[in-house]
Specification:
The complex is a heterodimer.
Chain A: E1 5-7, E2 10-13, E3 19-24, E4 31-37, E5 44-50, E6 53-57, E7 65-68, E8 75-79, E9 88-95, E10 104-105, E11 109-113
Parallel strand pairs in A: 2-11
Antiparallel strand pairs in A: 1-3, 3-8, 4-5, 4-9, 5-6, 7-8, 9-10, 9-11
Chain B: E1 9-13, E2 18-23, E3 32-38, E4 45-50, E5 53-56, E6 61-64, E7 70-75, E8 84-91, E9 103-108
Classes of the chains: A mainly beta, B mainly beta.
Chain lengths: 114, 109
């Protein structure tokens, strides 16, 4: 399978704990995006990378959130001191500036904060 | 980014053609129109993208009038498995995507 993969697919945690999600983009894609989706809403942009550089961050990305893409390949999204309002689906997408730049999404990580 | 307006929900029966129209009155010259499909508990799946006139692929057709202020996604002969949320997005190809609430399509037998 050469699509975008995300791990874990589900995560249940207690309020106040830290969680980390991983995204592996399509191998030749240099852009990687993170979105968050709550029930009944469309995905909301959080941040994106071109190679290892983080180029844009949404105001939704509070200081408890941090994303990295250290070698320009996989990316991690960490949420510190989780809150119940962080419960959502976290989606990763990737695209290539060399081709049509269409974003292809992974299956998402569903987070539940108790 | 141009704002989009699409119906909240639509119903259809198996075998029918479904047309979902999206309004984007403030579309910019460099903007493309992209449609995604999303099933519950899955990430959005790219369906089709176009700039003007008509685009067709193995899944759908996209009709864009000359003024580009609207677009219509056409799904031929829908099946039960086409029940999903369909999002219309407008923007430059490499920009971050702004999703609305989409159109919930329900296909009945």
């Amino acid at each position: 399978d050469t699509g975008v993969s995300q791990d874990p697919r589900h995560k249940i945690t207690k309020r106040g704990q830290n969680v980390t999600f991983r995204c592996d983009p399509i191998s030749e894609h240099n852009r990687l995006y993170w979105y968050r989706q709550t029930l009944g809403q469309g995905p909301e942009f959080l941040t994106y990378f071109q190679n290892e550089a983080q180029l844009e961050k949404s105001r939704l990305l509070s200081d408890r959130f941090s994303a990295e893409r250290p070698k320009g390949s996989f990316s991690t999204l960490e949420i510190q001191r989780t809150e119940q309002g962080d419960s959502a689906m976290y989606l990763c997408a990737s695209s290539s500036t060399a081709t049509e730049e269409t974003q292809y999404f992974g299956p998402g990580t569903r987070l539940l904060v108790l | 980014l141009a704002k989009t307006t699409q119906p909240i929900s639509m119903d259809s029966y198996e075998g029918q053609e479904v047309n979902i129209t999206c309004s984007h009155n403030n579309i910019a010259t460099n903007d493309y129109i992209t449609w995604y499909q999303q099933f519950p508990s899955q990430g959005p799946r790219f369906i089709i993208q176009g700039y003007k006139t008509k685009v067709t692929n193995e899944v759908a057709s996209l009709f864009i009038p000359a003024d580009r202020k609207s677009s219509t996604l056409s799904l031929p002969r829908v099946s039960l498995s086409d029940t999903a949320v369909y999002y219309c997005l407008v923007g430059e190809g490499y920009s971050t995507l702004t999703f609305g609430k989409g159109t919930m399509l329900l296909v009945a037998p």
